[in-house]
Amino acid sequence: MGNCRSRQQPENQPLLGTSTYKHPPLNSHFGAKEFNDLDCTKDDESKADIVIVFPFDDLSDKSDPGVLMRRGLLLRLRQAGLPYKTMVSTDDNEIFVVIGQVPEARLFEAAEAQKLEVPLKKIWQAPYAKFEMQRFDDFISDELLGTKHDKQFFSSRDRQTLIMGIIEGDARSPDKEAHPDLLKLSEVDEHYWAIRGGCTGRHPNCRVNLKHYLNRRWINGFFAMHPDKAGSRRDVLFKSWVYSWPWKAQPLERIFKYFNSKTALYFAFTGYYSAWLLIAGVVGAIVQVYCVWVMLANGVQDLDNHASAAFSVFMACWGTLFLEYWKRYNTELSYRWSTLDLEDDQHERAEFKYRAEQTAGYYNTNGVFVRYDEFDLLTMKPQHNLSSYIMLEGDHRDLKTSDDRAYEQEVSIQLKQAITEMAPPQVAYQDTNSRSKRLLLTNAASVTAVFALFVLLVAFLAMRLALDKQLHYLFGEYVATVIQAVVILLLNWLYCKVAVIMVDYENYRTDAEWESALVRRAFLFQFINSYFLLFYTAFLKGHDHWLVRVFPELQDTCRDYYNAPTSSCFFQLTMLLFVLTLSVQIGSTIAEALYPWALYQLNRRIAKYRWQKSKGNQEDQEFLLGEVDKQAKLTPVDPQDTFIDYNKMVIQYGYISMFSAAFPLGSLCGFLNNLLEIRTDGWKRLRATQRPAPTKHAKDIGEWMDIMQFMTVISITTNIG
User: If residue 282 lies in a helix (H) or strand (E), which one and from where to where?
Assistant: First the structure.
């Protein structure tokens, strides 16, 4: 079998022939595929992989730039070898471009070009390898790995990954992109296929950044399809994951094969972290019961005793061991899912490509840009031969003849030409000075936000005192804590949105760099917002400190269970942690899952209302949504969904580790919350939200590991204090 052939093709036949379709330019009639030719059948819907949602308008309106871009997108799909069907939504509000049933030969070509990791046969003793047609017999077909509805070489996740790679490959700004008539293979692809044996008939990528189209409102959205048949991977995953017993391990391999390594790694981390929380929770529950027994038996009005001190030492050791063992387990998962060398395959973000300048050079293996113009190669002169010099009375005299100089000049010209031909291509590069100015501006905005947050938190302290005076002490304390906890969640959510804008403005090259910058940008604000009240109660409340001298109305004393003044705020700190780790976190977990489901139900009702209005409220017709239409009404996945999930787990880890002495039962509360979190997150991803295009991968939890290690170190100090 040659490098460029599929299994069914003869010996000298190329993988894909050049398309004979001759499309007209954009300023002419669309011709071959008008939207009045709605040719999507139910069978096409069931086999759909990717759906792009267009607004319902007339494609013949050449004055609308959005129409031109949508027409251009359809032309690009055809040029890239992606067949599609079209259909109108039931409420006549949107047009669906359904991409599916892509020829297997086209997927083979894309898999080789995109270096897709495909499962290997067991004889190779390695889980995955980059796909190559010449090694076709070394790989395992999805017919052996899938369900009865997935009888193809590639799984649905891999098909969707390949299609998205074709659509967004080599993406740049649509405003700077060549006319669709001029689409061709990129220089990198041309070189790759040349060394693969000179194969002909290859397809170009669409070079479309769908996120940019969505932000410009040129399209309404795009999503990958959930398979909806009984016995499909989605159905099997739902039963073995969401409906499973709490003590059963998560089906991580199924999660990985249905979504991607980034999503699977988050659930692996949450499950592993929860298992360690159970260990700490059992010990913490024993300590908590002992503390309450001592308080009641001895008439002590506080929960502070030697058992709490011993438990804080235990938690310090627990945190260190948990993180070290997680690193080992993380490495095992990375090997299993073939993401150990992921940093070597990081692709540039399309947003970076069209926001940065184009400069000749290349990026080395460490991601450092090497500018071509930093090397004075074009002015290099050939070295003179020592025989052309003699020493006369201490002076150098050049004895070269005019023929020698002419020869050297000719060699220099040839050298310049050779170096010019060897020059690297123009690539996207963000100038260091420009990056520094952007960082200075965003850092100033972050400092301003932190200062405003500090003022707001001081105002909340005053509100807490006012509620204590107006209401019963315990009731006022509880109400104030709930109000502030809700505000903490809202401020964290709001600042995350602002942080995304700031990190986008800073313009990072790869997804890994972008996400690391987002974590660093959001951490300081969220650390202060989430733990300020706890640190104040633990170390400042009831003491004469500078904050009381500046704001005398904040003068407050610590109180015990019976509202009697005491020198320790241990009881109040316990109440705060109880509300934050149990009531608020579980409440936010449930709300996080109910929101997309409620939005989905609202979208269905709106669609039904529009349909009834268009039909004249006829009662004899039943409102039915097709499979594509039904999934289009699902809530789109938040691009920062995984970031939000990790953020919630890390904040919980801070509550449990840094203040374990005050609330030993916090570990058990966190464990119960995480059991609910895993199931609701799984239900949300499989039933309430659209399936994300599976293009994101991860080898570890990134910057979150450094933050948790930092919190573990801080916890030693806080618990001793």
Answer: helix 261-298
At residue 370, the 3 state secondary structure works out as strand
Residue 155 φ then ψ, to 5°: -70, 170
* E strand map for 89-135: 94-100, 117-119, 128-130
Which residues make Cβ contacts (< 8 Å) with residue 477, sequence separation at least 6? Answer: 464, 467, 468, 572, 575
Contact 238, 213 (CB under 8 A): no
**For the chain, what's the residue count?**
721
What does the DSSP 8-state code read for residue 567? Answer: S
CB 631 within 8 A of CB 241: no
| Per-residue confidence band for 224, with pLDDT thresholds at 50, 70 and 90 | very high
117: which residues sit within 8 A by CB, 6+ positions away? 128, 129, 130, 131, 338
**Percentage helix, strand, coil for the chain under 3-state DSSP, each rounded to 5:** 60, 10, 35
Quick one: DSSP state of residue 11? Answer: T
Q: What is the pTM of this model?
A: 0.81
Alpha helices (H) along 115-155: 142-145
For 471-486, the DSSP string reads S-HHHHHHHHHHHHHH
Per-residue pLDDT, averaged over 1-23, amounts to 33
E-state strands within 283-414: 357-363, 369-371, 389-392, 395-398
DSSP string, 672-713: HHHHHHHHHHHHIIIIIBPBPPS----SS-THHHHHHHHHHH
Integer angstrom CA distances of residue 605 from 55, 251, 511, 632: 19, 34, 37, 13
**What is the distance between the alpha carbons of residues 516 and 286, in angstroms, rounded to a whole number?**
39
Q: Using alpha carbons only, what angle is made at residue 709 by residues 707 and 714, rounded to the nearest 5 degrees? A: 95
**Helix 641-658 with 703-720: angle, nearest 10 deg:** 20
pLDDT at site 9? 33
pLDDT at position 586 is 79
CB 658 within 8 A of CB 719: yes
Nearest to 377 by CA among 338, 420, 344, 345: 420
Element (DSSP H or E) covering residue 223: strand 221-224
Within 8 A by CB and 6+ apart from 313, the residues are 719
Nearest to 71 by CA among 90, 49, 97, 93: 97
CA atoms within 13 Å, Cβ hemisphere of 513: 14
Local structure of 428: helix, strand or coil: strand
The residue written with tokens 């609308």 in the block is 64
What is the rounded radius of gyration, in angstroms, for the C-alpha atoms of the chain? Answer: 31
At 86, give phi and psi (nearest 5°).
-125, 150
- Give the pLDDT confidence of 442-452 residue by residue, as tens digits: 989 988 988 88
Rounded to 10 degrees, the C-alpha dihedral 234/238/240/242 comes to: 150
**Which pLDDT does position 24 carry in this prediction?**
34
Taking alpha carbons only, the member of 558, 561, 495, 568 closest to residue 308 is 568
